[in-house]
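RECORD TYPE: inverse folding
INPUT: structure tokens
STRUCTURE:
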């Protein structure tokens, strides 16, 4: 009986160690993913692509605004 209690205590200790190790690995994985995201965002190609997309979005917005002026004129004529 005492032997089983000792085994149980040892297993509970091992369980706690495994849970701690698991949590540490999760945190390490999160930190690594975060670091990789930062590195990717700092790449010249990515920053250039973001700039191109922002420029295109600005042009699209401008074109929509200009087009809306003409659409309003057409609606008034009908």
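DESIGNED SEQUENCE:
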């Amino acid at each position: 009986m005492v032997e089983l209690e000792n085994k149980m205590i040892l297993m509970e200790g091992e369980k706690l160690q495994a849970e701690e190790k698991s949590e540490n690995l999760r945190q390490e994985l999160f930190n690594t993913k975060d670091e990789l995201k930062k590195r990717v965002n700092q790449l010249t190609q990515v920053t250039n692509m973001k700039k191109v997309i922002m420029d295109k979005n600005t042009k699209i917005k401008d074109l929509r605004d200009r087009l809306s002026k003409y659409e309003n004129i057409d609606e008034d004529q009908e």
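NOTES: Residues 1-42 form one domain.
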